[in-house]
Amino acid sequence: MTRVVSLVSGKGGVGKTTVTSNLGAILNDLGKKTLILDGNLTTPNISLHLGIPLYPITVHDVLRGDAHISEAIYDHPMGFSIVPGSISIDDLDKIDIEKLSEAIEYLTKKADVILVDSPAGLGRESYKSIEISDDVIIVTNPNTPSLVEALKVKELAERLDKNILGVVVNRYVRGTSELTEQEIEETLELPILSRVPEDSTIPKSIDKKTPAVYFKPSSPSSRAFKKLGSDLTGEEFETEGIGVFQRIMNWLRE
Ligand code: ADP
Ligand code: MG
Fold this sequence. Notes:
Strand 3 (74-75) and strand 4 (81-83) form a beta hairpin. Helix content is 39%, strand content 17%. The protein is an alpha/beta fold. The chain has eleven helices and eight strands. It has helices at 16-29, 46-50, 59-63, 99-107, 124-131, 144-159, 181-188, 201-207, 212-215, 220-233, 244-253, and strands at 3-8, 34-38, 74-75, 81-83, 113-117, 135-140, 163-172, 192-197. The protein has one domain (3-252): Rossmann fold. The termini are far apart. The structure holds adenosine-5'-diphosphate and magnesium ion.
């Protein structure tokens, strides 16, 4: 059965889109037919992360009633599918967000996993992206402002009776992060699914419009994303990006 998973945070800029694009790429590599839906209608940017910002038909056209959802699905060169948002401000006019429910019903026939890149905040758009999902992953940074917003979005997901898979703590820096994993886990009363380190590969990969897991598979963040994907699917991930020690051991064994 297709799972619709929304990546939410409450606070903006914590890494939802980064996690979505990398997790999407990894799940696809692990053999799941994956589709990424840009659920961030006011400030859509997943297609900027993925390098194809100009699509002729977007989710905005669908929500305006000008196109069928089937016309807004594109194959990304890396194998997964994407339903992009329009980056034009004019396209915000006359969209009916309620049409997302119908759209997602169609999309579930097209993929094993649908990742919904959600907007910040707790407004109507966030509400809708949670409402159309089966599962929710909360993304937070290890600091109080994002944790407070994460707590609110958790409550919203609970009210909508969604299955909260857990938390991705992004931009973690050992020793200097404001909050520990334990503090985050205890406050949210949710398991931490992944701790993604602060990693200069991420801005570089966004600049190159390529998910970090492809841009630099051996980077610390890429390894975290691969582990997250394999934990979620129960599949083994390939050990590309293994540490120096392991590489030397493998070389000695050859
Ligand atoms: P959101 O979708 O929650 O608004 P983004 O995924 O767009 O957040 O990330 C915001 C910015 O944070 C990105 O431009 C990226 O450069 C930076 N960023 C995200 N994750 C990391 C990380 N693990 N290490 C370093 N920079 C990161
Ligand atoms: Mg985003």
